[in-house]
Design a protein that fits this description.
288 residues; single chain; 7-stranded mixed sheet; Metallo-beta-lactamase, Chain A; 8-stranded mixed sheet; alpha/beta; globular
Length: 288
């Protein structure tokens, strides 16, 4: 156990110290993984000061997301992305739409017969927010310095999770892979169709057994893996197989359950991982 803890500390120090050398703060990409418990919410601030919000957690954490955006000086949202219509992804977006001007919404196109989904759609209609369906393979044109490509979205007969919008964001030499809740079949399709290599991956479906196959991870080659889940959740997230796979490819694992809000800032050549909680005081169970 002592040796394992020592290895964890070395890995944490590596992530924090190595990118600092020659680091530039002039034009940054910020990706904030917001701690919404069991759910997803990601704030992206692009190099040219555009704001993207990807998902918003459950309805009960909507105010928490709003407060986080306000604390990070967000006045309006240039693009809101709803990866799929599950409650732990779209629920908090309703409060966000009520509080901030949203210029455009990118949606998976997957319909869902729940009260939360109805409220989400009604708020969009009420505010007459421009609404666009994601198209697999297309690029999202928002910032000339940031390439965003849609790797997965809804097609006929897919479930909610299988319909998740998955994105690859590239800023200079640094790539982020944001996997939504996609499953192994979608990972296989991405491997056949796209270059999925990325330094940072947001692990699909909160570390569920449905996703994150070892062949996919070897193709990605992540240095950092983010897992978004609530501590002591009812779903057993993350499963041991996913953690073992991430360790096998040498990824340093961060989770919102352990580290709280986690921000990753990149100048296009390197990156910094900035957790809300001190990593040496909150060693993750998945790394101990």
């Amino acid at each position: 156990m002592q040796q394992s803890i020592r290895i964890t500390i070395i890995m944490v120090l590596f992530i924090f110290i190595i990118p600092i050398s020659g680091y530039s703060y002039e034009s940054n990409l910020e990706v904030h993984f917001i701690d919404v418990g069991q759910g997803d919410s990601v704030l992206v601030k692009t190099p040219n000061d555009k704001v993207i919000l990807i998902d918003g957690g459950r309805p009960k954490v909507g105010k928490r997301v709003v407060n986080y955006l306000e604390d990070h000086h967000v006045n309006e949202i240039d693009l809101m992305i709803s990866t799929h219509p599950d409650i732990d992804h779209i629920g908090g977006l309703i409060d966000v739409m009520k509080q901030f001007k949203v210029k455009q919404i990118l949606d998976s196109g997957k319909l869902h017969s729940t009260a939360t989904y109805a409220k989400y759609i009604n708020e969009i209609r009420k505010q007459d927010i421009p609404f666009k369906l994601a198209e697999q393979g297309k690029k999202v044109k928002l910032d000339s310095e940031l390439e965003i490509r849609i790797l997965n979205s809804y097609q006929g007969m897919k479930t909610n999770n299988q319909s998740s919008i998955a994105l690859k964001m590239t800023y200079g030499e640094i790539d982020f892979l944001l996997m939504g809740d996609v499953e192994k079949k979608q990972e296989e399709q991405m491997l056949r169709s796209y270059d999925v290599q990325a330094e940072i991956v947001k692990v699909a479906h909160h570390g569920s057994d449905t996703s994150t196959s070892l062949p996919f991870l070897y193709a990605v080659g992540p240095e950092v893996a983010m897992i978004t889940y609530g501590e002591n959740n009812d779903f057993g997230h993350p499963v041991n197989r996913v953690i073992d796979n991430l360790k096998q490819v040498g990824a340093s694992i961060y989770s919102t359950a352990t580290y709280g809000n986690v921000s990753i800032i990149s100048d296009g050549e390197s990156y910094l991982v900035l957790p809300e909680k001190e990593p040496l005081d909150h060693l993750p169970k998945e790394a101990s």
